[in-house]
Amino acid sequence: MQRLTNNLHFNIQILSVRSSSMDLSQNKGLTGTLTPSIGKLTKLVSLVLTGCSFSGLIPDTLGSLTQLVNLNLNSNSFNGPIPASIGNLTKLVLLDLTDNQLNGTIPVSNETSPGLDGLVNALHFHFGRNQLTGPVPLSLFSSGMKLIHVLFDNNNFTGNIPSSLDQAQSLQVIRMDNNSFTGTVDLNFTNFPNITTIHFSNNQLTGRMPDLTGVSSLRYVDMSNNSFEVSTIPPWFSSLPALTSLIMENTQLQGSIPVELFSLPRLESVVLKNNQLSGALDIGPSYGSELQLIDLQNNSIDSVEATGYNKTLYLYNNPICENSEEYNCSAPQVPSSSPSTPTNSCEASSSPPIIGTLYFRSFTFSNWKNASYYSIVRDEFMNSFKKFNLPVDSMSVTFQVVSANDYLELHVEVCPSVNGLLDRTNFSLIISQLNNISFVTLGPIFGPFYYNNINPNPVKNSPNVGIIIGATVGGFILLVLLVIAGMYAIHQRKKAVRATRLNDPFASWDVNDPTSRPQINGVRCFPFEELKKCTNNFSNTKILGSGGYGQVYKGRLETGLIVAIKRAMQGSLQGRNEFKSEVELLSRVHHKNVVSLVGFCYEQGEQMLVYEFIQNGTLKDSLSGKLGIQLSWIGRLRIALDSARGLAYLHELANPTIIHRDIKSNNILLDDSFNAKVADFGLSKTLGGSENNEILTDVKGTPGYLDPEYFRTRQLTKKSDVYSFGVVMAELITGRSPIQRGSYIVSELKMAMDRTKNLYNLHEMLDPAISGNTTLSGLENFVDLAMMCVEDLGANRPTMSEVVKEIENILQLADSDDLQSEPSVFSISFN
């Protein structure tokens, strides 16, 4: 590996065609598109571009590198589709495309084009943290495949989890979490004798919970936040001898927890919060010695037998907490995810440490305090350094955080030898080893990973006598030439600075202070001219809507991706720091029920935000009927649940906590499957820390949705969003605007309600699109919840997580007649 800048096209031309390996990892100066000339290096066996700054399309010419065994393009900013030509690389073992901005579907072969199903020798499909869409093709997997890692997490996949996956019987890790997969999981897990890790969390899976009976190698399983059928705890919970981590939050579990579960010998964590578990909790006297955490928040546990258990037990919001102070009944604080501060721990060395982060995309433990796990990583790397005679004295590996994407981050410091020479070659070789040590040597505890270097090249070149003498002799001769060249360089420098200021979107930020620039990840900075072109010079025909901020345009990027571009009008331009803060904030927000930021533009006096385009517009438009869509009652409940989940994420999982401040039906968008996403963060505020629950600020928002307590006191809290959401619930019930003909919908509902009568006597107020259904299962409960949300005092309103749980209960209580008579979220009217 060598340090390069963005002249890779030139470097490709001078590389020997006999080169078998190219490792350019961690070269942040490699920017722009990857040149198609890369296809000329037909002898390449390994191409590693991890952690560079490439953008644009992945060139089709990679399909010419038919000798490739390893292809690492992860942690760049590549966009557009996965080239089908990669299917020509039949010798490929590792395909790593993680952490880019790739979109479109996974290509599979047809009569005219290759596809990834042709990679029969591949062990690793690493596609996580992209924007890939559509169903995963059934033909992608076949019995001849040797796959051990299938990592499709944190994308936008839809449809069923492909049943053909169980033909890849060598699988060890499956990550399908944080997508929009639906339907039942039709996999026979006994076909995976070596499976250690299963992540299916944060999807929309339904039907019976997958049966993991007999999967004796399984260590880590997370199926949280799905809509499986209501069921008691299945027997396989207590029959997995290797299990360390069982995470089944919000999976419709009910009944009691078997005491046998806690006696599993390797069990470290049991997370069953947000279910319907009830009765007595008996941990038993023979619980496993490794058990560190039992999290049963938001259930119905009414008694506990935990003799001798002195580790963490969370029982917040269970009946037992109403009359007992013996157990931990307070809500746990969400830990900070701030990265470690680099320090020089290598005081004896003449060179500062090499500092960075290892990002593990899978792992099979949850006891973060167990240092023995991290010593495995340290020892393997130290053995690798010694094998190549690299000047490394010691290395420390410590736990840093588990990110919102469920990636384990370990802080790494490599200490150069006291007497060793850390020249550029050795520095590059150390970085290369940190990126390329075999996954197998760390298994089964750790899975695939990548390394990101934090500190700049800490190389201190030692003096050389010959160079000093040569420099002295030649110095006088060069002096005159330098004076002449210096004048020319100053002139050229001024031209370069002017050009940089024209092209650098961050030119107005302090270039000498990197912390002043936006700290963004996964979003792109767009040139003004590109956005102008893709909107036909901001044509009125491209306008999707407008508001106080400006107008929103529909555009198609050069990659083919359709986006929504929010352009600030001159009177609403933010200050530099405010716009920077908004971009930083939105780049950190990642949830399937929150609209994603694709990028931004900050040049030529413009401030634009580029979002994913949501096909079916706003909830307001659908309720108004102007789109010819009539939302069913079940569909409205699902939209309410999606929106509530997005808000709960902003309130309780985003770091820092975000208060939206403008929740309304116009700011809830519906995608092509009528999944709801919270949008428009122009008025949002963040809470400065876990100890802050309110902000004193000017009153802003939309009339009709505005929290009256916030209006009176100017104290903004998360409960202000809850009030606005309650008004949206009223809209879902009535189909009316909050303020219509001088009447306030909340007041009208309260006056019309009669809890002694069917449907609370609201027949005349119901939206005509649903009033024809005489049952409307759960309507009364939904109205009760809406009225709780719009209580005058914020203290009397529920939290958004409580709202989520209650709407989930309402959906579960909807009887089979409702579900059979309303199989769809919507219907289309041709009137």
Q: Termini distance? A: 66 Å
Write down the CATH class of the domain at 619-828: Mainly Alpha
User: Which fold name fills CATH's third level, the topology of the domain at 619-828?
Assistant: Transferase(Phosphotransferase), domain 1
Number of helices: 15
Mean pLDDT: 83
How do the helices and strands line up, and which of them pair or pack?
Blueprint: H1 8-14, E1 21-23, E2 31-33, E3 46-48, E4 53-57, E5 70-72, E6 77-80, E7 94-96, E8 101-104, E9 124-126, E10 131-135, E11 149-151, E12 156-158, E13 173-175, E14 182-183, E15 197-199, E16 204-205, E17 220-222, E18 231-232, E19 245-247, E20 253-255, E21 269-271, E22 276-282, E23 293-295, E24 300-305, E25 312-314, E26 354-360, H2 371-387, E27 392-402, E28 408-416, H3 424-436, E29 449-453, H4 465-503, E30 524-525, H5 528-534, E31 543-546, E32 550-556, E33 562-568, H6 576-587, E34 597-601, E35 608-612, H7 619-624, E36 629-631, H8 633-652, E37 658-659, E38 668-670, E39 676-678, E40 685-686, E41 694-696, H9 708-713, E42 715-717, H10 718-734, E43 739-740, E44 743-744, H11 745-752, H12 768-771, H13 779-789, H14 800-813, H15 816-821, E45 826-828
Parallel strand pairs: 1-3, 2-4, 3-5, 4-6, 5-7, 6-8, 7-9, 8-10, 9-11, 10-12, 11-13, 13-15, 14-16, 15-17, 17-19, 18-20, 19-21, 20-22, 21-23, 22-24, 23-25, 30-34
Antiparallel strand pairs: 26-28, 26-29, 27-28, 31-32, 32-33, 33-35, 34-35, 36-45, 37-40, 38-39, 41-42, 43-44
Helix pairs in contact: 8-10, 8-14, 10-13, 13-14
